[in-house]
Structure formats: C-alpha cells, structure tokens
Amino acid sequence: MLKRSSSVGDTILTMSNPSPNTPVLIGVGTAMQKHDDPLQSLEAAQLMMLAARRAGDDCGRADVLALCDSIQVPKGTWSYSDPARLIANDIGATRATTVLADIGVLQQTIITRACNAILNGEQRIALVCGGEAKYRALRASRLGIDGAETVQDGAQPDEFLSINEDIVSPFELQRGMAMPVTPYAMMESAMRYAAGDSIAKNRQDLGDLYAGFNEIARRNPDAWIRDVYTADDIAFESERNQMLAFPYTKRMNTQWNVDQAAALLLCSYSKAQELGIEPSKYVFPLAATESDHMTLVSERAELHRCYGAGIAGRRAAELAGVSIDDIELLDLYSCFPAAVKAYAKELGIEDNRPLVVGGSMAFAGGPLNNFVLQSTATMARLLRKEPQKTGLVSAVSGMLTKQGFCVWSATANGTGFKSDDVSALTANAVATIALNPQYSGQARVAGYTVNSIPGFPVALIAVCDTASGERAIASSEDSALIKQACSEELCGRQVSITNDSKLQF
To answer: Tens of pLDDT along 16-70?
Structure first.
C-alpha cells in the first residue's frame, strides 16, 4: 500500500515492491496536425503509427514496440477493417494479436483488457492506440480533393468487440434525437429543473464552467483549440458560436473534426525492469471499473441522474485504496456539459478541484471514440511530474449510457491492479419507464431542448411523462413555442400530445 509521511514539510513516498505481473504504463505518445491543405496531412492510421512510435520513444526503448503481444484500437470514423494490423506492420510487431473495439464499447474496456492480460500472465507488452483525421477529411471535402485512406482488402482483426443493444432506438432517431447533442441537452434541462436553477443562471454557469476548461486547454500543448474565450463567448450564441441544442452552443460541444491520435504502451512490472525502463516513466493503473448496463435516454425515470457513474467511480476508488476526496487529479468525461456535471454530482465532487486535466473535449479536442486515450496520456504526464498524487480518468459510451473509470498513480500500491464490472449493481439502481410511441393525451415535460443543428429542422423536442405512467416523445416547430422554450422553464409543465406526436400547451 502507498504510504505517505511528512518530514520537515516534505512528502516521502514508500511502496511495497509490485508483483512481477503488475501492469504499468511505460510510454505515452500523442500526435496532432492541423493543416488546411489535406495533401500535407497524415491519414488517421499514420497518425496512430506516429503516436505509437512516440510512445516507444517516450519509454526510452523504441525497440519495445516490436515486442507487443497485442494492439487494441477503438473504432473511429475511418474505414480501416483492421487498423491495429497497419500499426503492427509499421512498428514491426508482426506477431501481435490485433483487436478492434466497435463504437459503443467503452474506451476504458480495452485499457482494462490490456491490464488484465498482463496481470494474468497472458501478455507482457500491450499497446492501446487510436486516432482520427476528420479535419483532414473535412478539408478534403471542402476543397474537392481526394482524401483517400489506405484500403485493407479483406483484412480482419483477430478479435472484434461489439455491443448487442441499441444506444439510440429507431423511434428516438425518428423523433429528432439522432445527434448526441440533443439527448445531452435534454438531460441538461432535467438537471437544471432538479437543481431549481433558472434558465439564465444555468446558461451563465455553463459559460463559467467551460471558460475554466478553456483556460486549462490554453496550457495544454496537445489541445486542438487554444484561443481565449470568456464565459459569455461560450454561453451565448454568435455568428461563430451557433446554438446547436438549447442551451448548448458550439463551444460546449465536443470538437470531433480533429486530427489527433494517442497511444498507451503497457507492460508487466518485471518486463519493465528487464528492459531497463527508467522508473520515473512508470505510471500504474491501480483500479478500473465499468458499468455496461444500457438504458435508452427516453426510458430513464430520472433524466437528471447517472447512477452508474457514482457506483463505478466509487468502486474504482475503493479498489485503489483511496477515496474520491483523496484523488487530486480528475478527468471527467466532457463530451457535453451534462456528462461532466453528472459525473461530478454522482461522485460528490463539490470542491474546487479542476474537473478535467486537458481542457475538455470542447477545447482539447474530442476524436470520436478515442478521447479517453488522449486524457490518459495527459494524466500520465502530470502524474510523472507529481508522483505523490493520484489521478482518476473516466469514460462514457453513448448518451451517458455506459460508464468507466481508472485510477492511476506514478507510485504503485501493495495490492496491485484490480478491476470490476458493476453493471448488475447499476441495473438494480436505475429505474425505467416504458416508451409508448403511439401515445396521445395529457403529459408532463421531463426534459426538452430546441434543436437548431445545421441540416436538421429547428424544433422543440421533449421527453414527457404521460398520464398513463408511460413515456412519450413529442415535438413542435411552432416558432412562438420554440421562443418560449428558450426563455421559460418547460420542465414540469403540463402539455398535450396529439395523435401525430405534436406538442401543445
């Protein structure tokens, strides 16, 4: 167990010798490009390769990469069928097992899998790597340039991880909840109502929260956006800050049109010693947890709650031998404000600790299905500088659908790495209400937003509790009602839903 003692005001760290199979992060690598000319840009696979090579350089033994037993990659927007094999061929890890995790699989899952494979003696060296080149693709599309990617004819990973349930139902998609910002903004309205805050206060609080994130991003060399924004610049719409789903503006939205990649190089403690890796590079995963229980947003009895975050987060701290209050460095998943706020609320974080380490997905950049690798790399670098501290990195999949956590420290504890799946505990805690797609009649608004996403109709969309004890999704394109929804609280209001699912007051 990690022990801390004071002597003349200094903190002295002592630790039990880790067991040989204790997993340890020995190398982190990140890569970013921002070329307006896509012909100067690397494709996503090349960015991942660059991040992997930098992880090898970071540990001081670039030759370690060729010894990898596995390479795991979370699926992105690209078309590669086995991206890990492209990386393996580039770094010389020709015998590595390749894994591709589909969208919907928690990013923490593949990190935990790598750690457990090392802990169980199945592997000694593992690489987790991911990335995107959506900015390159966007620029190529706008300029009419071919932004082609490497084609893998018939290549398949040795293992493909997938999910068996829908994150968004067909009816939710039909009712305007296709883009993630919409259900997250609905959850935000329910949080606002539950807290008793006015719309004006809620918007100002969001601006203040993200202005703080912006300040952190400006100090992060890996951040995609490092421009200075005030709270009002963020909270209120302007020509360069469109409202996407009230009250969420573009500057609160995850920025996924980025060219970024990250790589995490893990091995066993005995292998790190054998390779002569400098101990100052070690960052230990102490504990990891996840909840894979899936509930559709429209069927959650309490739209303002995320029980899985509290259950999984507290369990991770317990397994690591610390409390949430003991953890000095936090990175709470920040795709949208509702996510980071829900995690903080469920974990009972009410002090002034920064909630992110890199600047949030709005400013640090949110490469689809890869941000946890980015935030873990940032966390590792911070912990190396301050080995007396402990860090918590969290993950989300879907619409606050799944929750994951990992506790990290540059100082090992005496109990080694532990992990737990708390899906069953979450399932027992979460109440649901069945959705009735054909409902018409009286109802009460549980959560709502006004969609103004480019390319979609401007519409008020509401999840409602029906008089019959079910759930319904209704909408309205009435301009007067839309204006009212952005200035007056509609949560808790009694409404009528017509036969064609239109909302009326």
So the answer is: 689 999 999 999 999 999 999 999 999 999 999 999 999 999 999 999 999 999 9
Provide the 3-class DSSP secondary structure of residue 355: coil
Q: Please report where in the chains the tokens 């693709």 appear, as a residue.
A: 137
Letter for the amino acid at 48? M
In sequence order, the 6+-apart residues with CB closer than 8 A to the CB of 327 are: 317, 390, 391, 392, 407
Structure tokens at 466: 């029906």
Residues 379, 369 contacting (CB under 8 angstroms): no
Ranges of each domain in the chain? 15-166+256-429, 441-504
Q: Are the beta carbons of 234 and 251 closer than 8 angstroms?
A: yes
Residue 62 is predicted with a pLDDT of: 96
Q: Using an 8 Å Cβ cutoff, are 269 and 18 in contact?
A: yes
DSSP string, 438-460: T--EEEEEEEEEEE--TTS--EE
Which residues, in sequence order, are bridge partners of residue 417?
none
For 225-333, where are the alpha helices, taking DSSP H only? 231-235, 269-275, 307-320
CA–CA separation, 17 vs 86, rounded Å? 37
Q: Distance between CA atoms of 223 and 218, rounded to whole angstroms?
A: 7
pLDDT for position 1 = 34
Burial 20-43, CB ≥16 within 10 A → b, else e: ebbbbbbbbbbbbbeeeebeebbb
pLDDT 10s digits, 455-485: 888 999 999 999 999 999 999 999 999 999 9
- Domain 441-504: give its CATH code: 2.40.50.840
Q: Where are the alpha helices (DSSP H) in 255-370?
A: 269-275, 307-320, 337-347
- Count CB-CB contacts under 10 A for residue 88: 24
Residues with Cβ within 8 Å of residue 87, at least 6 apart in sequence: 45, 48, 49, 52, 71, 73, 93, 127, 129
Q: Is the domain defined by 15-166+256-429 classed in CATH 3.20.14.10?
A: no
The secondary structure element, H or E, covering residue 262 is: strand 259-268
Q: What stretches of 3-158 show up as alpha helix (H) in DSSP?
A: 44-58, 83-91, 107-119, 134-143
Q: Is the dihedral of CA 328, 332, 334, 337 positive or negative?
A: negative
Whether pTM exceeds 0.90: yes
Q: How far is it, in rounded angstroms, from Cα 441 to Cα 160?
A: 45
| Rg, Å, the chain Cα set | 23
Residue 294 to residue 43: CA distance in whole angstroms: 33
Closest CA to 373 of 68, 158, 126: 126
**Residue 31 corresponds to which tokens in the numbers above?**
């890569």
Distance CA 268, CA 200 (A): 52
Print burial letters for 326-361: b (CB count within 10 Å at least 16), e (below 16): ebbbbbbbbbbbbbbbbbbbbbebeeeeebbbbbbb
